[in-house]
Design brief:
The protein is α/β, with parallel strands linked by helices. The protein has two domains: about 140 residues, Rossmann fold, CATH 3.40.50; about 50 residues. About 40% of the residues lie in helices and about 15% in strands. It contains eight helices and eight strands. The chain has a six-stranded parallel sheet with strand order 3-2-1-4-5-6, sandwiched between helices. α4 runs parallel beside α8. The two termini are about 20 Å apart.
Length: about 200
């Protein structure tokens, strides 16, 4: 199978680092639970230009500094033994060097890295014929699943709510691994990918 995997919030525990740096830069005192990387400008009450200024100063550090999510390296390596891994991230090609270095540093294997520079992942998932996408942003999950690609949504404070069909909440990399490899009967692939069963 072809497994799509996001980076920030899925492989990289990016949010604590982003919140710390955003708070320092904009002199705020936001808590991790308040933040959604999908909509930083609204949360921090800043303009797009101010966000670009922040990224110009801190972007490379933010892409190379986070620790991996617990279990990500171990379980992704095990999944890679059986399936192809496509890293599908909204990060820009500008941060390609930092991103590749970070993936290598923490032993996160993959077949192809897609630096989209956009949160619009549906077309990439369809083009690469992905059988499932592991994602943490509900808005992205809704769009991708609407195109017929199942989504495993990594549980986070900012993605709570009712899940549409083909979006399945997962609370750890162990759960993701079991859904893909250890319990393959629950993941059925056809011309129109779909997941049966839930956990």
């Amino acid at each position: 199978m072809r497994i799509g995997v996001d980076i920030d919030g899925v492989l990289a525990d990016s949010l604590p680092l982003w919140v710390n740096e955003l708070n320092r830069f904009f002199r705020k005192n936001k808590q991790v639970e308040e933040i959604h990387l999908y909509d930083i400008c609204r949360t921090y009450e800043i303009t797009t230009n101010e966000l670009h200024q922040f990224l110009a100063r801190k972007g490379k550090y933010l892409m190379s500094g986070p620790l991996p999510v617990m279990g990500a390296s171990f379980y992704l390596s095990r999944i890679k033994q059986y399936h192809d891994i496509y890293i599908v991230t909204a990060r820009e090609e500008l941060y390609g060097r930092e991103t590749r270095g970070w993936l290598k540093k923490y032993g996160l294997p993959y077949d192809e890295l897609l630096l989209l520079g956009s949160h619009e992942k549906k077309e990439a998932c369809l083009e690469k014929k992905l059988n499932v996408l592991v994602e943490d942003t509900l808005e992205i999950g809704v769009k991708v699943s609407a195109a017929g690609v199942p989504v495993f949504l990594m549980d986070a404070p900012y993605n709570q709510g009712v899940l549409p069909g083909l979006v399945y909440r997962k609370r750890s990399w162990d759960e993701i691994y079991r859904s893909i490899v250890a319990e393959p009967g629950k993941l059925v692939i056809s011309n129109s990918p779909q997941v049966i069963g839930s956990s």
